[in-house]
Amino acid sequence: MRVAVVGTGFISTLVAPKIARWGYTVTDVVSTPRSLAKAQELAGPLGARAGCDYDAVLAREDVDAVYLGIPNDLHHDYAMRALKAGKHVIL
Predict the structure, then answer these.
(1) What's the CA gap between 1 and 67, in Å, rounded?
(2) What distance in Å separates the CA atoms of residue 69 and residue 91, rounded to the nearest whole number?
(3) What pLDDT was estimated at residue 52?
(4) Which residues contact 67 (CB under 8 A, 6 or more apart)?
(5) pLDDT per position as a tens digit, 45-60
(6) Phi first, then psi: what are they for 34, rounded to 5°?
(7) Which of 27, 12, 37 is closest to 62 using CA atoms?
(8) Using CA atoms, how far apart are residues 37 and 65, in angstroms rounded to an integer?
(9) Domain boundaries in the chain?
(10) Residue 78's Cα: distance from chain center in Å?
(11) What percent of the chain is modeled with pLDDT above 90?
(12) What CATH number does the domain located at 2-90 have?
């Protein structure tokens, strides 16, 4: 499974490496523009791309699922967008 990690907070920094250790591919780390440097730092060791365009990640065929490491009040919107794009969602 190919997973995009959304968010660069503490939980994402813990979960993203575990996703890779479990045998899945982390394809992207998606952040806000102000956290792009953190996304690049997290993505680098995983061989993932870093960026700020969630919709572009959802449109890509090499992403099967998204892990939402973002504040709970954002989960509904981001999860629904991912589901409508045909992606699995991990909360």
Answers:
(1) 12
(2) 7
(3) 98
(4) 3, 4, 5, 6, 12, 15, 16, 19, 90
(5) 999 999 999 999 999 9
(6) -70, -15
(7) 27
(8) 23
(9) 2-90
(10) 11
(11) 100
(12) 3.40.50.720
